[in-house]
Design goal:
CATH class of the largest domain: Mainly Beta
Helix content: 25-40%
Number of strands: 24
Mean pLDDT: 85
Number of helices: 5
Largest sheet: 8 strands, mixed
Order of helices and strands: HEEEEEEEHHEEEEEHEEEEEEEHEEEEE
Distance between the termini: 56 Å
Shape: rod-shaped
CATH topology of the largest domain: conserved putative lor/sdh protein from methanococcus maripaludis s2 fold
């Protein structure tokens, strides 16, 4: 190696050493913003997906066969109990009824004649003026005539019922659906569904709760928790608030052992018929816990594998190797401490914390994504607010 090469290598080392001196030391302290937890009263609702259901619903079936000769309602309209809905061809049933009435009259006439004959033979028999056999035949004929009258009366009832079944009427007040048959269709008794009617005022709203919440709703059902205005409200599918409040009607008889859930039924008045059976909606249950709650910005909560965590700022003393070698005490600093929490209701951009932290704790709200348990943190450098919402690391 010549002298010129040695000078070049030496100069290169000098330049590298000069650059290394200019680079600032890398800091492992993470800048964050903190939020001090202060209990406060909050108003919120527990939301439950729900479905509207009719308290009563029935499918209209034909009970006699024949052709549809009349439809007397508007599909999807509100109807009253007893309203005429359908008519099946009545001519054959009217004829059968008329024939049954005529047969009854004949049977009544035969009974009158048999009664007269029996009375006459009974009188003669009392004086031994008639053969015993004729008297016995007269008594038997009278009994047969009475039986014929009873049979004719039953035939009239049956014919009358068939005639009445040819007219289908509403069994209760409610809303009627789309007709499943049209004029001229042939219907068969017991198999042809004509339409469906469901009650519409009041309307049931069913939702499912966890079995752990059952005692709370049992207390609400018995009204032991006191009366709160707007305890049960309803959000419609378009996210508008239904104008009437509900009340608990019934809690299902048993918990589903497969899911650990049970159905609760509310009842809402429905005078304007806004609610229809089968609607998807959201039941809101007014918060009854009037005690102050611990509320955090939702962005401070981290979700990991279905569990939720926050980072608190913990005072600590950090001793470096240099401090140890010089026998000097460590420096006071803040470190991030991960805490598992149980979250409650979300209120806008905030979330209620049920357990895991205490009032007065300092919670990291910005810079969470750069943290892990035990990392030194600082609030010296203000961070811009990060986006809201809970996220996984």
């Amino acid at each position: 190696m010549n002298r010129a090469s040695k000078y070049i290598i030496f100069a290169g080392f000098f330049v590298l050493a000069a650059c290394a001196k200019k680079q600032p030391p890398v800091s492992n302290i993470v800048p964050v913003n903190l939020y001090k937890v202060v209990p406060k009263k909050v108003l919120y609702y527990d939301n439950y997906p729900a479905t509207t259901n009719a308290l009563s619903q029935v499918s209209l079936l034909a009970q006699v066969q024949g052709y549809i000769t009349g439809i007397y309602f508007k599909e999807g309209s509100h109807i009253k109990k007893g309203d005429k809905l359908y008519e099946i061809d009545r001519r054959i049933y009217q004829a059968n009824y008329d024939a049954a009435v005529a047969n009854l009259k004949v049977a009544d006439g035969n009974l009158t004649q048999a009664q007269q004959d029996a009375d006459r033979y009974e009188y003669l028999n009392s004086y031994n003026a008639v053969a015993k056999q004729l008297y016995d035949h007269a008594v038997i004929a009278l009994q047969n005539a009475k039986n014929q009258v009873k049979a004719a009366e039953e035939a009239v009832k049956s014919a009358k019922a068939s005639l009445a079944y040819a007219i289908i009427t509403a069994p209760f007040d409610g809303t009627i659906g789309l007709s499943q048959v049209k004029l001229g269709n042939f219907v068969t008794p017991g198999t042809t569904v004509l339409n469906t009617i469901s009650t519409d005022d009041p309307m049931a709203v069913d939702f499912v709760i966890n079995e752990k919440q059952l005692p709370r709703f049992e207390k609400l059902e018995k009204n032991k928790a006191g009366s709160i205005d707007s305890l049960f409200t309803l959000l419609l599918p378009d996210n508008t608030l239904y104008p009437h409040n509900g009340k608990i009607s019934v809690i299902d008889r048993a918990v589903d052992p497969q899911t650990g859930s049970i159905t609760v039924r509310l009842v809402f008045s429905n005078p304007e018929y806004f609610l229809r059976a089968g609607m998807s909606c959201v039941v809101r249950v007014h918060n009854q816990d009037l005690a102050p709650q611990l509320v955090l910005p939702g962005k401070a909560v981290v979700e990991q594998m279905g569990e939720y965590f926050v980072f608190t700022a913990k005072d600590s003393v950090i001793t470096t190797k240099e401090d140890s070698s010089k026998g000097q005490p460590g420096k006071k600093s803040l470190v991030a401490s991960q805490k598992k929490v149980v979250i409650g209701q979300t209120i806008g951009g905030n979330v209620i914390i049920k357990s895991g932290i205490n009032a007065g704790d300092r919670i990291v709200v910005d810079g969470v994504q750069s943290l892990h348990d035990g990392v030194p943190i600082t609030t010296a450098n203000k961070l811009p607010p990060s986006g809201g919402g809970r996220g996984g690391k």
